What does this fold into?
Amino acid sequence: MAVCENIRIAQSRIITGEQYRGYKPSLRKYFYGFTIQVIATGDSIPVEFAILSGSYNDIDEMKNMFFNLPEGSIIYGDSAYTDYNFEEICLESENIKMVISRKSNSKRKHQPWQEYLISVSRKRIETTFSQISVMFPKRIHAVTVEGFLLKVVLFIFVFTLNEKLL
It folds into this structure.
């Protein structure tokens, strides 16, 4: 969630510092703001989320999340979440299985049917992210960091309420 574009970083009065500069590989551009991680159910209902500064990458953010999930839960993720040690720790300590899409040069490849299952599940999750993003206005006006984050959290909360009521 960008507070401002990369070219306007010097003019930002809400946040300052290099820890807020992040990179979106899919768009091939830098941004200045926060990254948001969301864990959603199969029905596209967000159950947990974490907001950290933009410099964090996906797996570091996942490690900072507190999993308040039932035992035996399965978390699907894309290849950015590949960390074999973290997967083993989650499985041993909390009985939460992380099923992560693997890169082509991975040491622990999945079977083709597992890759298909992961891709179908990831499409539902990506749809959830795009539905939440559509709710955001083009610009979020805020005077403080807390006000900006409050608005982002409220958008996620409203999306959750809309999904549960439908």
